[in-house]
Amino acid sequence: MIIHEGFYIHDFPTLKDGKYSCSNCDKKYIRKQDLVRHLNYECGIEPQFSCSYCDLRFKHRFNLKRHIIRSHVK
Ligand SMILES: [Zn+2]
Ligand SMILES: [Zn+2]
């Protein structure tokens, strides 16, 4: 399973029949509040924290930290 910022990318349950679609990208959401959250926190926001071990980037420092611990620290 691919975990990205806490969501399962390949099986996101609201993608198929979401009523609210983002005008900037192709994401769709069933609940309006989810679209609003997407617009406020995800869409068009450049990830600021880049991993120094690989090419992944993260929007939050704790996500980067968690990624490094899980993927690169042995
Ligand atoms: Zn979007
Ligand atoms: Zn990495």
UniProtKB/TrEMBL annotation:
GO terms for molecular function: zinc ion binding. This is C2H2-type domain-containing protein. SUPFAM superfamilies: beta-beta-alpha zinc fingers. Pfam families: zf-C2H2. The keyword Metal-binding applies. Keywords: Metal-binding, Zinc, Zinc-finger. Residues 20-47, 49-74 form the C2H2-type domain. SMART domains: ZnF_C2H2 (SM00355). It comes from Laodelphax striatellus. Signal peptide: none annotated. PROSITE patterns: ZINC_FINGER_C2H2_1, ZINC_FINGER_C2H2_2.
